[in-house]
Amino acid sequence: MVIKNAGLKLLVLALLAIIMVSGCSDSTSEANSTTESDSSAATSSGAVYQWGDNQFAELVRNNTEGTTLKIGFAPPAASEFYDIIEHGANTMMNELSDRFGVEIEFQMAAPSEHQSVESQVATIENWTSQGYDAILVSSAGDFDSMNAVYEKAMAEGTMIYMFNMPAEMWDEDELKAVSVISYNNHYQAGYLVGQYAAEKLNGEGEILLIWGLPGHWSTSRKNGFLEAIDQYPGLEIVGEQRGDYVRDKGMQAAENLLQANPDVDFIYGENEEMAIGAVQAVEGRGMKLWDGEDGIIVVGADGLMSGYESIKNGKLTATVNVGPVDMGREFIKSVFMHQVLGYTIDKVQNVPTVIVDENNVDALEAYTDWALNTKR
Questions:
Q1: Judging by DSSP bridges, how do beta strands 266-269 and 297-299 pair with one another?
Q2: pLDDT tens profile 63-111
Q3: Cα 148-150-151 angle, rounded to 5 deg
Q4: Three-class SS string for the chain?
Q5: In whole angstroms, what is the distance from residue 249 CA to residue 242 CA?
Q6: CA–CA separation, 316 vs 113, rounded Å?
Q7: Residues 6+ apart with CB under 8 A from 328
Q8: pTM here?
C-alpha cells in the first residue's frame, strides 16, 4: 500500500507536511468565510478542507485513489463515549475518501461484557486472519499479555494502534503498538479536576470520589488528582466507593457516601456516567447542587452529550472533555499517514483536553454534535 513511485512520493510528502500542522473542517461557517483564492479547496460534496487546494488534492489522489484500507475498531465496551470516538473517525474517513479517493472498510466490535479481554483478543485474532490492515484497540487487559497479542498480529501484517490508553504509565520502548493515540490521563484528566476543585473551593473542602473499575485508567486519573490536591492541605478526601463506570452504580455509591458524609463540598466521578449518577443521588437526598455560589460541586470526565446537557441544565457542574472526537479523527489520520503515505508517526500522540462548564459547554457540544451527525 505504500506509494512506490519515488519522485511522486517525494512530491506528495513535501506537500503533505502541512498536514502535521493544520486541522480540518467542513463547517458551514468556514465554508461561508472561505476567500475567493481558497475556494478551489472546496470538493464536489460542498465540504471545504484545509489540507491544501485542489492541486494538492489531485497530486495526492493520483497516488492514493483506489487504495483500500480495512480497519477494525475494538473498544472495551459499547457506550456513548466510544460511539463519539467512532463518529469522530467517520469525519476523517469521509475526508480521506472525498479528497484522496481512499476507500475504507471499517468494522466495530465491542465485548458483550464490559471490558471482556478474552473477547477482544478473539476479535483481534479474527481480524488479523482476515488480513485487516490496521486494528484500533483500547483494552483493560494486562499490559504484557496484550503486547504479546499485538506483536503477533503485527508479525502477520496487521498493524495495531492503541487509543484511549494511559501511555504515561509505561516507558515508550515498552509499547509494542505502532502508536498510542490518546491523552494523558494523569495530567490531562485527573490533575485538571484536582486543580478545578482547588479553584472552586478556594483550597478547602471535603471531597468524595466515585471511582471506576481497577485498572489503567482509574490508577492514572487518581494519581493525577492526588498530585493536584496535595498542594492544598485544606482539601480532604473523606470517602471513596466504586461505581464501575456506569450510572446506576455511580448513583448507589454516591448515596452511600452522602449518607456518611452529608457536609461534602465536591464529588469527582471518574467518568461522566458515574458523575451523572452522583448528581441524581444528590438530588434524591434533597441536597443542593452547585449554583455558582454554594452547593455540592459534581465533576466528571469524558465529553458526552448527556454530560453537556446536564451542565446546561444546571445539574453537573463540569466535566473534562478528553477529546473523543479528536481521538477518532487522529487515529484514522495516523493509519493513512503511516500505511498509505509512508510517514513515520510519534509513538505517543496526545489530543488536547479541556475542562467544560457553563462557560464553554456550547462550543464543545456543537463540535461533538457535528461528529455524531456525520454519516459514512
A1: parallel
A2: 999 999 999 999 999 999 999 999 999 999 999 999 999 999 999 999 9
A3: 65
A4: CCCCCHHHHHHHHHHHHHHHHCCCCCCHHHHHHCCCCCHHHECCCCCECCCCCHHHHHHHHHHHCCCEEEEEEECCCCCHHHHHHHHHHHHHHHHHHHHHCCEEEEEECCCCCCCCHHHHHHHHHHHHHCCCCEEEECCCCCHHHHHHHHHHHHHCCCEEEEECCCHHHCCHHHCCCCEEEECCHHHHHHHHHHHHHHHHCCCCEEEEEEECCCCHHHHHHHHHHHHHHCCCCCEEEEEEEECCCCHHHHHHHHHHHHHHCCCCCEEEECCHHHHHHHHHHHHHCCCCECCCCCCEEEECCECCHHHHHHHHCCCCCEEEECCHHHHHHHHHHHHHHHHHCCCCCCCEEECCCEEECCCCHHHHHHHHHHHHCCCC
A5: 8
A6: 28
A7: 84, 85, 86, 87, 88, 89, 90, 91, 92, 371
A8: 0.87
- Check pLDDT > 70 for residue 20: no
Contact in structure between 265 and 239 (CB atoms under 8 Å): no
Can you list the domains of the chain with their CATH numbers?
6-183+323-372 (3.40.50.2300), 186-321 (3.40.50.2300)
Cα distances (angstroms) measured from residue 246 to each of 24, 122, 309: 34, 25, 18
The distance of Cα 321 from the centroid of its chain, to the nearest Å, equals 8
C-alpha cell at 227: 498530585
Beta bridge partners of 355: 320
Amino acid in position 185: N
Q: Is residue 161 left, alpha or beta, with left meaning phi > 0 and alpha meaning psi from -120 to 50?
A: beta
pLDDT of residue 52: 79
* CB atoms inside a 10 Å sphere around CB 279: 26
Let me know: does 158 contact 152? Beta carbons within 8 Å: no
Q: At what angle do helices 247-260 and 272-284 cross, to 10 degrees?
A: 50
